[in-house]
Design brief:
- Chain A: One of its GO terms (biological process) is transmembrane transport.
- Chain A: Residues 55-257 form the ABC transmembrane type-1 domain.
- The complex is a heterodimer of chains A (266) and B (266).
- By secondary structure, chain A is mainly α.
- Chain A has helices spanning 8-29, 41-46, 49-82, 86-98, 101-111, 117-124, 136-161, 164-172, 177-188, 190-206, 209-214, 222-232, 236-256.
- Chain A starts with 7 loop residues before the first helix and ends in a 10-residue tail after the last helix.
- The chains are: A mainly alpha (266), B mainly alpha (266).
- At the A-B interface, helix 1, helix 3, helix 4, helix 5 and helix 7 of A face helix 1, helix 3, helix 4, helix 5 and helix 6 of B.
Chain lengths: 266, 266
């Protein structure tokens, strides 16, 4: 098949132009100040308490979002594999994930609004309506809502591949259903969980539209900060510095959740 | 297979309700003659009419579709050639390096892709607008196409190519009459995914679109930032309808090709 090598040419150009060049440019710009001189001031600024605190809270939120998403998605995926028409049910889970993310986020502006259904329900129980929008609760809730289908799909796939005789064997050998889950099912589906964490944690660090629309200025994630620096403050140097750290954290997460056998997307 | 307990069923029902509630909430109020998402006054189609009357919105809709089709097409060509090229590489190290580079854009956060492309386009001097949006959509769709086509190529028996060559087929014939027909399902799946990625993208487009050009996601974002507008609800209704049709179509297409494929293998 060596004669097909000519096919590689446009692809290599794509890699050079849109994979290597952008990363190089981000690193280059992270060392420039506003007037284009070389400086490490951006990195110094990043290690100032303001940015460090922002980074830590961003990670904390991403951690919480991933945790809650996993806690909801795993049982759902597990129960889905037990249903009769499981592929059909899975498709019904996938449909909401295909609706434009902004539309789903927008829905919560109404739902969490001061006169929205949640507050109406709160009032029925005799409580005062409260502003739920623009709080960190609403940010976490909406993010978890958005990521649930993306977490369910890989976990469902790995549960579906699990050989059921292993579970019978564990039960026959006297393991309780909890032990079976802890020692057999969960370890064997850990790859699905890892993929799920990948597709949740990294976007949770970087999605800026949810924070902008739902959390107001209450929550600032790494993604929000990058958008702010690039498009509002026009400080591309500082924005690139934050982007460098976002890329680094992505690499760390990929490394931690890397699969030994070379997992494949979808 | 054991039947699901009623508690499990209840759990699944709640998850489904939560997943669909915001979407139906949006669609429900798209028929509201009042201007808000709280009090349903009376049934009306005026918001749908407003969508179709708003020529600016229609132009944006057409733009979005053109960008998706065009970028999907170009990305499919590049990606398919790239996958064929990757397979032709014998050296395992080079192949794995290319594959890792391929995956960079898939796992990269959207903000980073958007910001780095913004720097890239400004440096090269590409005017922000239609061209920059199409090029960046091509850029982030290429790796997806490669990932969809690659497995098909890898499972292809190389003696098919040898046989074609022995029987006197030219290089071009081998490509168009043997390889391409064999990997066709992968190419279609890649094109399809590229379309959905393009239609769904917000963050990258938001960075690289200039003032004059807008896609649906960017438009929804700027509308949602100014508050509730039932036109967005009407758009959600339309988007939901299209999505359901597309998902059902994809499901059947996928199932059919899977069945044909399994039939061939066994």
């Amino acid at each position: 098949m060596a004669k097909q090598r000519g096919a590689l040419f446009p692809y290599i150009i794509w890699i050079a132009l849109f994979v290597i060049a952008p990363i190089a440019l981000i690193v280059y710009y992270s060392m420039l100040d506003l007037s284009g001189n070389f400086t490490i001031a951006n990195y110094k600024a990043f290690f100032s308490p303001v940015y460090l605190k922002m980074t830590l809270t961003s990670f904390w939120y991403a951690f919480l979002i991933t945790l809650f998403t996993l806690m909801i998605a795993y049982p759902t995926a597990y129960l889905l594999t037990k249903t009769k028409h499981k592929q059909l049910w899975l498709m019904l889970i996938i449909i909401p994930s295909w609706i434009n993310l902004l539309l789903k986020t927008y829905a919560f502006i109404g739902i969490f609004g001061l006169y929205g259904p949640i507050n109406a329900a709160v009032e029925v129980f005799g409580f005062e309506p409260k502003q739920i929008l623009f709080t960190d609760f609403s940010f976490i809730f909406v993010s978890v809502y958005i990521f649930i289908p993306f977490m369910i799909i890989p976990i469902f796939n790995s549960l579906d591949k699990l050989n059921p005789t292993l579970i019978y064997a564990a039960r026959d050998l006297g393991a309780s259903s909890f032990t079976t889950f802890l020692r057999v099912i969960f370890p064997l589906t850990i790859d699905g969980v890892k993929s799920g964490i990948q597709v949740t944690f990294i976007p949770a660090l970087s999605l800026f539209m949810i924070t902008r629309l739902i959390a107001g200025n209450q929550v600032i994630t790494l993604g929000t900060a990058i958008e702010q620096q690039f498009l509002v403050s026009q400080n591309w140097g500082m924005g690139s510095t934050i982007a460098v750290f976002l890329i680094l954290s992505m690499v760390v997460i990929m490394f931690l959740t890397g699969q030994k056998k070379g997992g494949r997307v979808r | 297979m054991r039947k699901l307990s009623s508690a499990s069923k209840l759990y699944l029902i709640i998850v489904f309700l939560v997943l669909y509630a915001p979407i139906f909430y949006l669609i429900y109020y798209s028929f509201n003659s009042g201007g808000s998402m709280n009090d349903f006054e009376s049934f009306t189609l005026e918001h749908y009419k407003a969508v179709f009357k708003d020529s600016r919105l229609i132009v944006i809709l057409i733009n979005t579709v053109i960008v998706a089709l065009l970028s999907g097409l170009i990305a499919t060509i590049f990606g398919t050639l790239g996958a064929i090229g990757i397979v032709s590489i014998k050296d395992k190290k080079i192949r794995n390096t290319l594959l890792s580079l391929n995956n960079v854009l898939i796992v990269s956060p959207d903000v980073v892709i958007g910001a780095s492309f913004l720097i890239l386009f400004t440096m090269i001097g590409v005017k922000l607008g239609f061209a920059s949006v199409v090029v960046s959509h091509v850029a982030f769709s290429v790796p997806i196409v490669v990932l969809m086509v690659l497995p098909k190529l890898l499972e292809m028996n190389t003696s098919l190519i040898d046989a074609a060559r022995d029987l006197g087929a030219s290089k071009r014939d081998v490509l168009t009459r043997v390889i391409l027909p064999y990997i066709k399902p992968g190419i279609f799946a890649g094109f399809f995914l590229a379309l959905t990625y393009s239609l769904d993208d917000f963050a990258v487009t938001f960075f690289v679109t200039g003032n004059g050009f807008s896609t649906l996601s960017v438009e929804i974002y700027s509308m949602a930032r100014t508050g509730i507008s039932l036109t967005i609800n009407a758009i959600s209704g339309l988007v939901f309808l299209v999505t359901v049709f597309v998902v059902i179509g994809y499901y059947f297409f996928n199932n059919r090709s899977k069945r044909i494929h399994e039939g061939v293998q066994r």
